[in-house]
Amino acid sequence: KLNDFGKVVVANQMGPVPLAIYTTAAYQVPLVNIVQGALADVIFPDMVKRAKRDPAQGLMLWKRAQVLIFAVICPAWALLTYWAEPVVRVLFTDAYVAAVPFFQVFLLLMLRQCFQFSTPLRSVADNASFAHANLVALLINAGCIFALMPRYGLWGPTLGLVIGQFWASTHLGIRMVRRFRMPVSQLCQWSKLGLALVASLSGVAAMHVARAYLPATGAGALCSAGVFALVYLIAARLILREEYGYVMRAILQRADSVVV
Prior knowledge:
Helix content is 84%, strand content 0%. It has 13 helices and no strands.
């Protein structure tokens, strides 16, 4: 893994203390994989059926699933970024507070993982693009490490991993545009993705205002997080009416088939 490459270099060049901070910062809650797996169980059978009739329909369903994944991951990313310091303190103790800025940058990978362009490419037997993207991402990671780490320390492997992964996503997106002969505007449902991001940032703003009027206690933090959840859920319900209805129907159909 690209992250393991960074760990090896940090361990060899900087010693155990920076390695502990880097490992803490690079810790990724497996939320994206959980959400993707849950949606795949619900959506994938329908996706296969539609793709057999018309590949464009299968691609449209993939876009819908991407919106749903982003709608779950984006608010989680916003919350973890905002509460990064207390999260690190609770999970890894006060000794690892120095990892907070690196942790916040690594959290951007949660958003990158929402854009799995390799899935549609693999459905048309294009595995070469995925291999090429990962190879160049590894080279970018290595270049940033050796160029930045001597002067900027842990920022070298941190930025190397993040920049490399975002480059890989961009490359695969371009390959998908060319392979499916579509404009960039049709690559994703950009308007809904943008609205989900705006809803998340609006929730953070409302939560930040609520914190100013609530006591600085655990109960106050929970109440402010509740304000975020309320604002986001109302906005998401308005934005994702079609996707919400589709998933609920798919879940009910799956439950009926299990019962039968």
